[in-house]
Write a structure and sequence with these properties.
With 303 residues, this protein is an alpha/beta fold. It is 47% helix and 9% strand.
Length: 303
Amino acid sequence: MAGPPLAADPLAEEAVRAYLRCAARAGQRDRGLRVFGRFRLGLRQEMGLEPEAATVRLHAALLEASPTAVAPVPRPRRASGTPFFGREEELESLGAHLARPDHRLLTLSGPGGAGKTRLAREALEGARETFGAAAHFVPLEAADSAAALVSAMAAATGLKLGGAQPPLGQLLAFLGSGRHLLVLDNFEQPGVREETLAAVLALLEGTGGVTLLVTSRRRLGLQAEWVMALGGLAYPGHPDLAAAARSSAVRLFVERAGRVRPGFALGGGNVASLVEICQLCGGLPLALELSAAWAGSLSAPES
């Protein structure tokens, strides 16, 4: 479905209504909601007006449409390009939480290297059946303030900030229609925690359909928050070959080691060493990957 004929005049309300009708007929619910959100924001900023009643009725009809009627969004290839091991129970639990409109703030907490970001990305892909194109990953490595947090969310959702209205107000107006999922990754990075938490609260209270999945080394401490504590991957308590072959920690190590030492495999001769490595790493994915990077320099008995 092509974009609306609004390039010449983005505030042409008749054109917006025509697009919303087409979006409804084509099953493009999320796309229509985004177009309405941009139009309403522009109308408020440029003219201080609200959409006409006819436009609001079309928007309401889109809101009532079932998300399952939307054409499926192709799942993009994972940026990491590496297999994902374990976390089946966590992924299932995350999917159940994200599918519930009353669970709008979920925090993945755990130590550095526990794989919070990778799990959040996997959950984001799985949630596209519910949120469609309105599911966004928001990296916060460079966010050092509440303003930077808002800018990062705007950039991830495709909102161009500008005008006299405060950026947070623009974001709230833009996300005010339909359901949206924002994955806020590395939330512990923003430097002014009180201000960033205030921005999160404003986002939850100022919109009706925004769900936040946050990764952080510590919980946010907000009343609306659901917390999932993340530890290491599962590994055997003793060097049992069958148990090691089922272990997500051992499988991760073997796969990564095989990238630097072709032919590397789990066997009776190295199962004790591999289980010990997993135990020393506490099953933490990052520690296992760093350890596996040394496999290329080890002799056969060491591997």
